[in-house]
Structures are given as structure tokens and as C-alpha cells.
Amino acid sequence: MKPFLFLSARPEVEAVGPEYESVRRALGVDAARLEHVRLDVEPLDDLRLEDVAGVVVGGSPYNVVTPEDQKHPVQRRVEADLARLAEAAVERDHPLLFTCYGIGVLTRVLGGTVGTRCGEPTAAVEITLTADGVADPLVGVLPERFDALVGHKEATERLPVDAVLLASSARCPVQVYRIGRHVYATQFHPEVSASDFIARAEVYRHHGYFPASELHAVSERLAAASVTEPQRMLRRFAELADA
Questions:
Q1: In sequence order, what DSSP letters do the residues of 165-181 get, joined into one string?
Q2: What are the φ and ψ backbone dihedral angles of 52, each rounded to 5 degrees?
Q3: In whole angstroms, what is the distance from residue 209 CA to residue 204 CA?
Q4: What is the rounded CA–CA span in Å between residue 50 and residue 227?
Q5: Rounded Cα distance, 158 and 101, in Å
Q6: Residues 232, 234, 237, 242, CA torsion sign
Q7: Does residue 139 come out as left (phi exceeding 0), alpha (psi in the -120 to 50 range) or beta?
Q8: Residues 70, 156, 38, 190: is their CA dihedral positive or negative?
Q9: What are phi and psi of 181, to 5 degrees?
Q10: Contact at 8 Å (CB) between 108 and 158?
Q11: Which residues of 20-50 are buried (b: 16+ CB within 10 A; e: fewer)?
Q12: From the CA atom positions of the chain, what is the Rg in Å?
């Protein structure tokens, strides 16, 4: 069987290993089938999509709305690599799942709009599937309403022309969309458990997702959340990619 590829873009090394493990566990594959490239460390060389079953792109503290002249050179390279990947996957309709930061990259590549009006603080929020989401082979494995974990400063404000909206939340209308049959982007984090997200909140407590002084209160809210469904999305992604 072909391997899966996980692309991370987190300069905070203490967050990298846990994110990889969360994705691996949610996909339901062992480490031998999940290759990992840290885009913040090495460029994405010419990737032969036909050599992998599917690609998952993780989150990042980067924001695509940051003015270009204020982006670190590493961020500009990461976004150029992800843009090339997105264009190739859309052209080939190859299984690809962008999460959180990646949805902004894909939206811009495809001509949509990313802005800061629909950011969400670190929390569990209710996600609602659209009619297309209920019928979708990937997202449709989830209940019509479920809780998911979010924490983002930017979001898709205008969908790309050919995108199919699959899920929304009250504050962020674009939570999941699909391009073609096999390219997906999700704003919420489908890979994490509440305990995973608490650990990630500790790493990013000084990054502006919430006041650092509120870490304990944020952690308590996350611990009390019932988030049981989103990881099924990644397991389903692996099943469909292997089919």
C-alpha cells in the first residue's frame, strides 16, 4: 500500500511531534505508512503525488493575511510550496486535506478571500453540516451537528468559485469545503483530542490566540468539552484514499 504524507509547518519544535502523532492516530495508520516533512525546516521537493495515497497538511501559527513584506522568508517559502502542492492536487484531483492554516493557503490559490472577521478563539464550537456536507463521502460520516476544536485568527470569507461548502459554525461560516472530488480544506482541527489541544494551547499561550493569563481557564474549558467525532473524518480520508 502507498504511504500517506503529513506536511507540518510549525517552527515550535515541541508542537511538531504531538501533531504528527495526533494525525497518525486519527488516520489509523502506523508510522511506517505516514511520512513526515517539516516545511519550516526543508523545502517540498518535486513531489510525485502518484507515489502517495494522500496528503494531510497540518496547522501553523503563520497567517496568510500577514502582509508579504512582513512575512519571514521561511513562511513565504512554505506558502509557495503549499500553493504548488494545491495546484497539482486540484489538477489531478488527488486526495489532499488542508487543515486550519492550510485552508487559507488553498482559498487564496483558488481565488477566494481570506480575512480576520471570522476568527475563533481557542475552544470547542458546534459545527453544522450543509446539505452537501451530509451527502459528501468524506464529511458525511460525521453527524449533522457535532463539536470540534478551533483556534484561528483568520478564515475564508469568500469561497473559491468552484468550492462546495460542506460545514459551518456560528462565527465562522466556512469550516469545511471541497474542490473536485478529493481535495478538502477544514478550518477546525480534525486530528486532536481535547487533551491534545490543551497541550498545544500551552505551547501557543503567547501567540495571541487567547490572553496568556487565561491559559488555566482555557484548559479547563477544553477539558470539559465533549469532542468525539472530528477524528472520524481523518479515518474516512484514509479509507477513501486507499479505495
A1: EEEE-SS-S-SEEEETT
A2: -125, 150
A3: 8
A4: 34
A5: 16
A6: negative
A7: alpha
A8: positive
A9: -105, -20
A10: no
A11: bebbbbbbebeeebbebbbbbeeebeebebe
A12: 16
DSSP code string of 6-42: EEE--S-HHHHHHHHHHHHHHHT--GGGEEEEETTTS
Helix (H, G, I), strand (E, B) or coil at 138: coil
> Which residue carries 461560516 as its cell?
173
- Per-residue pLDDT of the chain (243 residues), as tens digits, is 999 999 999 999 999 999 999 999 999 999 999 999 999 999 998 889 999 999 999 999 999 999 999 999 999 999 999 999 999 999 999 999 999 999 999 999 999 999 999 999 999 999 999 999 999 999 999 999 999 999 999 999 999 999 999 999 999 999 999 999 999 999 999 999 999 999 999 999 999 999 999 999 999 999 999 999 999 999 999 999 999
The Cα 142–Cα 110 span in angstroms is 26
Task: Tell how strand 145-152 and strand 120-129 pair up.
Answer: antiparallel
Question: If you search the block for the grid coordinates 471541497, which residue do you land on?
Answer: 178
| Amino acid (1-letter code) at residue 236 | R
Residue with cell 477544514: 186
- Percent of the chain that is helix, strand, coil (3-state, to 5): 40, 25, 35
What's the gap between Cα 99 and its chain centre?
A: 1
Assign 168 to helix, strand or coil: strand
Domains of the chain: 4-242 (3.40.50.880)
Nearest to 28 by CA among 210, 191, 143: 191
